[in-house]
Amino acid sequence: MQGMVQAFMAERGFGFITGEDGRRYFAQRSEVAGGAPLLPGQAVAFTATAAPHGPRARAIQPGPAPTLVYLPPAAWIVARSSAVRGHVLAREVGACAAWGRDLDAVRDRLCDEAARLGANAVLGLERAQRSRGTWFSGYRWTEHTLAGRAVVLVRPVYTTDAALIARWRPLAPGEAA
Fold this sequence. Notes:
The protein is mainly β.
């Protein structure tokens, strides 16, 4: 049967393969030809067997290893945290800030400023607000300030898709993400 590795924890020596029939199969490193760890997205051929705890893959023949490419995030990321799950910091571009009365407009201006710097995310977001007003009319309003670090984030993905590999060039050994 043919399948695709969904997850494999090399340090623990096991993982899961989704077969062409749509079922998930348990896989152990001892069943892999050569004993090498499998990579997510790697094509494999295996023998499906029944086991007491569910379907199991035996005699696993790994296919070509997938290539690691770094994709940009699907949408702008604005977060208070300094890291985003599933993404890697490629480079820090600089600091950016925006202020104004409408919070949504301030956020849009902050993203525009970060994009002008070449970023695709703002991390470490800090928000402040203060009341302002005029002494002669008694009119008061709230002014919002947003500030953060403009950064470029990438999402590491293992793939065998030639179009993705051609478009998002894999990094050379030692090259920073």
